[in-house]
Amino acid sequence: MASDSQDHARPRSKGIYLLPNLLTTACLFSGFYAVVAAIDKHFDHAGMAVFAAMIFDTLDGRIARLTHTESFFGKEYDSLADMVAFGLAPAIVAYQWGVVRIAEYGHFWGRFGWLACFFYAVAAALRLARFNARAAGADKRYFEGLPSPSAAAIVAAFVWFFSEWHEPRLVGLIAAFAVTASAGALMVSRFGYPSFKQFDLDRRIKFVYMLLVPLFFVLIAIHPPSMLLSMFGVYALSAPLLWAGRRLRRAVRGVPAGGA
Fold first, then answer.
1. pTM for the full model?
2. What are the tens digits of pLDDT across the range 62-107?
């Protein structure tokens, strides 16, 4: 009986849940590999690594919820991994690809390039901090500002797409850094983006909708960078375009326009 009471009195050892944190580590590794690949001038591999990080980032949270292994440690670790994979990695990929080239057109353009990359990294950090601070009371159906994985996807796909042209010239380089800065601005904006977290996988759907799944993968397989850039670009532009449309309709009707 004494040994039983001692067992009950012994404090439980603290640990972490293995599976979701392994997936988070895979997300972190993918972001690290994207940086290394960019330094080695393998921009197609860097783009693939960012998208791999997105997959692992999606899986770790879903697996944690499904297996009831959510924890405060996992939440903090996930946020740090996201900063590397979706904050620093895309900024460094864009920097490595374009700053040296654009600096050849003048010192001003070189400054513009690295400032755009730094602005993106700062915006990603602010976006993640705001998300963590407001997560408890936020509407789960929407994100406030463009999610950092989607912003990273736009930057990575854009560089991946343009890396197939060895000489993008000044216009292409300006476009790359403008896209990088715009993705950062959308992250810290107040535009509402659908989160798709309420999507019910157990719900019955029409059989014809199942045909969209292989079509989705076929389109990506045709030319991954252009297809991924198109999809995430449409998602990023959807919120500001809908907001502008609402403002226009209110102006036509003579109704005072509200905020974003």
1. 0.84
2. 888 888 888 888 889 999 999 999 999 999 999 999 888 898 898 8
Residue type, 120: Y
- Helix or strand or coil: residue 208? helix
CA 147/CA 41 separation, integer angstroms = 27
Q: In the block, which residue shows the tokens 């770790």?
A: 60
Which CATH number among 3.30.260.10, 3.30.420.40, 1.20.120.1760, 1.10.460.10 corresponds to the domain 17-198+206-246? Answer: 1.20.120.1760
How high does pLDDT run on average in the chain? 85
Burial of 56 (0-12, 13-18, 19+ CB in 10 A): buried
3-state helix, strand, coil in the chain (%, to 5): 75, 0, 25
> How large is the greatest C-alpha to C-alpha distance in the chain, in angstroms?
82
Per-residue pLDDT tens over the stretch 10-28: 444 455 677 889 999 999 9
Q: What is the DSSP string of 56-107?
A: HHHHHHHHHHHTT---HHHHHHHHHHHIIIIIIHHHHHHHHHHHHHHHTT-H
Give counts: helices (H), strands (E), the chain.
11, 2
Cβ count within 10 A of residue 223: 13
Question: Are 151 and 184 a contacting pair, CB within 8 Å?
Answer: yes
Q: What angle do CA 219, 222, 224 make, to 5 degrees?
A: 85
d(CA 119, CA 180): 9
